[in-house]
Amino acid sequence: MDYPISVLAQAERKVVDTKTLPFGKIPTEHMFIAEYKDGSWKNARVTPFQELTLSPLTLCLHYGQTVFEGMKAFLMDDGSINIFRMDKHYRRFNMSLSRMCMPDVPESLFKGAIRRLVGLDADWIPTDDDGSLYIRPFMIASEERLGVKVSEEYLFMVVCSPTYRYYTQPLRIKVETKYVRAAEGGTGSAKCGGNYGAAYYPTSLARAEGFDQVLWTDSKTHEFIEESGTMNAMFIIDGTLITPALTGSILDGVTRDSILSIAREKGMKVEERPVRYKEIVAALKSGKRVEAFGAGTAAVVAPIAVISMDDEDYECYTGDDATMYELRDHLLAIRRGRLPDTHNWNNIVEKFAVT
Ligand SMILES: *Cc1c(COP(=O)(O)O)cnc(C)c1O
After folding, report:
1. pTM, 2 dp
2. pLDDT in tens, 243-280
3. Neighbours of 226 (CB within 10 A)
4. Is ligand 1 within 6 A of the CB of residue 346?
5. Domains and CATH numbers, the chain
6. Is the minimum distance from the CB of 69 to ligand 1 under 6 angstroms?
């Protein structure tokens, strides 16, 4: 059953030159918003992009009940609009919401909102191979109350922004052994705003030392690699793809999952297991070819050029023939319709015209 969504669109299109602008600065013309009150979702609507008015008492401004997703729409070679892996993003959104005591979004509301919005703002999807439309579904606690409590009212919204290559240079990262992003039993596997706020300080210290990001380690021993900044960490050592297994403190990335599937299909050896950072140091010291990269929706594959561990810098392989680029290009080819979509990852969306 389709969730009723009204469309209050403005007919005029104002696609501007988005290529020169930083990631996420320019929203498309429209947005989606729905309100949760008295136990149900109401007023689901696509509207012109607009500001919100919130009371300073609004709960999300104080106690952190905020959850988001990040996904992308691509233009396929035949002109179709493709939203990538909407199912997995939907499941993860609800998983994050339940961890934060926030209500589920019905599947038809989530998918209907995104289909409508992307269909309407389709002219904003970049046509270049390195371009796509970033889609940001999110939910905030909107009840007005200063007392600490689980909110009984929420806003579910979706906004979009054209995006191109996220990082232009291979990254320099530092293994973080003092601060942690997430602990066992915490919220590391949920895409909630608080995880990011808590990561800023250690990341800013690493930036001051000349690094782009930190490579997080586990909270108990600081020996095992968890994630890199806001991406899942992956390594290719002697042709084997190695990535930390999903524990409660690592986010279950859609890009991670897609790359693991592609690697397995290509016949690569894939290992999801605990990864000691000392193991990576040993491989780098032994002169083996080590590729390291972050995997995430925004950057897709972000090559890592330098990893600093115990105050020593190590260089990883980032040559043009690196296997990580082959995996990235394979993923891109599926999204563009150049390779068969054997996993049903693509969701074709109708262009939606305002009449
Ligand atoms: C979103 C996110 C990722 C990447 O997940 P994708 O689904 O591939 O975008 C990895 N780590 C963290 C902490 C994230 O928030």
Report:
1. 0.96
2. 999 989 999 999 999 999 999 999 999 999 999 999 99
3. 23
4. no
5. 6-164 (3.30.470.10), 171-336 (3.20.10.10)
6. no
